[in-house]
Design goal:
2 strands, two-stranded antiparallel ribbon, mainly alpha, 11 helices, 346 residues, Rhopdopsin 7-helix transmembrane proteins, 3% strand, receptor
Length: 346
């Protein structure tokens, strides 16, 4: 059985309801064996790195900037994904026998689907914020306020959940006699509904946001070139923040665009617009490679914060300084109390 992204596994993938009878490749044996290990490594690293990022943003004494509000929510979305992935790793290790029940089947896959939707729209907000800050510098003070950023994040989480409603509705755990397993899969009421839901996801989770991100990234790069040539020392803080944001945007495009393109081709295959065993085999193999690349993005983002983000590294130093000061004060207070106690003893 070809392994697909957990958010898109459907009954048609399990029993070949599309009428094709392409033979499974021997490559799936080693893919099924290696995937759980890779997913667990990504999960552990992603949880540790994203918890670290969120801890720094939460404990720093200064309030977050607009860009940092968006990036902290992106870290939260990545944390949501990597926290759900171990369940899917266990599922693959058990040959797609889902051992966690119907409720967890729905919740885990909603969490994965929400990450895919929310993370890209947080980057849309990040791109728009940098675009306004650098291209429309005269009006950015009125538009870029933390309260608006928090409202935008709240709406993004709500929109991400809305896009996950089909997953919540149609995810089921049922016995599949062809493979003798209890599988957690998407059981759509009809093939038309399946294609409609996949089409909506491609439009709202790929075409629209990628177009906005690409436009903003292009404009940001042009603005940075102009500022570098014309004003070397101007708005250094904005440029530092923009460099980090630009790195995160480009990393996201590299990691996720191939996955979404393959997903779109896969939908065309299931809609019988395209066909052929050779193309299906190529798409399935590409699906695996680009799944791995997409998952790695949740680990890559925190690394970029540390390597590229000078302001973030400064925050890390200041948080550790806060901790060291608190430890020193606490230690001195304890010694003082102990000394006072000893003095009062007869």
């Amino acid at each position: 059985m070809a392994v697909r992204w957990p958010g898109s596994l459907s009954y048609g993938d399990l029993n070949n309801t599309n009428g094709t009878h392409c033979p499974d490749l021997e490559a799936w044996d080693w893919l099924n064996a290696s995937q759980p290990v890779y997913i667990l490594i990504i999960s552990v690293l992603g949880i540790v790195f994203n918890v670290f990022v969120l801890t720094i943003f939460c404990l720093h004494k200064k309030p977050c900037t607009v860009a940092e509000i968006y990036l902290s929510n992106l870290a939260a979305a990545d944390l949501l994904l990597v926290s759900c992935l171990p369940f899917w790793a266990v599922n693959i290790a058990y040959d797609f026998n889902w051992p966690f029940g119907r409720f967890m089947c729905k919740i885990i896959n909603v969490g994965i689907k929400m990450n895919v939707s929310c993370s890209i729209y947080f980057l849309v907000l990040v791109g728009i914020d940098r675009y306004v800050a650098l291209v429309h510098t005269m009006s950015h003070g009125r538009m870029r306020r933390p309260k608006y950023a928090k409202l935008g994040c709240l709406l993004t989480w709500g929109f991400g959940f809305l896009l996950s409603v089909p997953t919540l509705t149609f995810r089921e755990v049922k016995y599949v006699p062809e493979y003798s397993i209890e599988a957690c899969f998407l059981e759509y009421p009809s093939h038309t509904v399946e294609l409609l839901c996949d089409g909506m996801l491609i439009i709202f989770s790929f075409i629209i946001p990628i177009s906005i991100i690409s436009f903003c990234t292009f404009k940001i790069i042009l603005a940075l070139k102009v500022q570098t040539i014309g004003r070397v020392n101007a708005e250094k803080t904005e440029q530092k923040a923009t460099t980090l944001v630009l790195a995160v945007l480009l990393a996201f495009l590299i990691c996720w665009v191939p996955f979404h393109i393959v997903t779109a081709v896969d939908v065309l295959l299931r809609a019988d617009v395209l066909g052929g065993c050779h193309l299906e085999a190529v798409i399935d193999i590409c699906n695996q490679i680009f799944n791995y690349l997409a998952l790695f993005n949740s680990v890559l983002n925190p690394i970029l914060y540390v390597i590229v983000g000078k302001n973030f590294r400064k925050k890390v130093r200041e948080v550790f300084q806060q901790w060291s000061v608190k430890k020193t004060v606490t230690s001195e207070s304890t010694r003082s109390n102990l000394t006072s106690t000893l003095k009062t003893m007869p």
